[in-house]
Amino acid sequence: MLARILCLVLGYLLGSIIQGGYWLGRFNHIDIRKYGSGNAGTTNVMRTLGKKYGFLTYFLDIFKVILAGIIVNFCIAPHFNISELLLFLYAGFGTVLGHNFPFYLGFKGGKGIAATSGLVIALIPFPHYCFAFTLFGLITFPLVLFTTKYVSLASLIGIAGFFIEFVIWDLVGFLPLNGTEHVEACIIVFLFAALGFIRHAANIKRLINGTERKMGEKKNG
Fold first, then answer.
1. How many angstroms separate the CA atoms of 214 and 221, rounded?
2. Angle of helix 51-71 relative to helix 20-27, nearest 10 degrees?
3. What sections of the protein cross the membrane (predicted)?
4. Residues 130-165: pLDDT tens digits?
């Protein structure tokens, strides 16, 4: 239990402190959460500050999850008889929580999609074809995005697909997990997906109503 708590706390602190969208907004003398959709995520930064800052926000959000994984690998996992993958999932989930609910910003951050994609990318070095999660994401997200022009829909299908793929990988024995870790890991990945859907509740309503903004569409367009 101690290892899991350490990973969650580590991830939460990294996710909160490395709040790319918020700090880039401050660099441009604005609180990004008072513009556009009102969150500090990649999409809102890109729409408000432009592509350069949007991509920089995305890379920072990926970086903090990868950094959490590196710390888990070298500083936490060696001291516990627990799968490194499981501990990394806890750290990654903590990072997304910190990204979404930063303690020093009134718990108002982003929606966690970029950070979750960082976790998927960081799974590449794990054995038994875990690189396939990233490959599937690189196919699914742009395919849905450029077909529908909805960033939110592409994000939702991407995280739902990640959960389904993870469960399949576990069922066929590809994941380096032991005993009850299999169920525990699947639950954590489900929480990733569930949190993503919860954070996109307003987007889902707009998608159903046909009022969701498409990629490149102006606010009043």
1. 10
2. 140
3. 55-76, 85-106, 126-146, 153-176, 182-198
4. 899 999 999 999 999 999 999 999 999 999 999 999
Q: Are 59 and 118 in contact (CB under 8 A)?
A: no
- Any idea what the Cα angle at residue 70 is, between residues 69 and 71, rounded to 5°? 90
Rounded Cα distance, 77 and 32, in Å? 36
Residues 6+ apart with CB under 8 A from 133: 120, 123, 162, 165, 166, 169
Give which of 60, 73, 120, 125 is closest to 92, Cα–Cα.
120
For the segment 2-57, what is each residue's pLDDT rounded down to a tens digit?
A: 999 999 999 999 999 999 999 999 999 999 989 887 888 888 898 899 989 999 99
Nearest to 60 by CA among 38, 41, 76, 82: 41
The DSSP-derived string for 19-87 is -HHHHHHHHTTS-GGGSTTSS-SHHHHHHHH-HHHHHHHHHHHHHHHHHHHHHIIIIIGGGSSS-HHHH
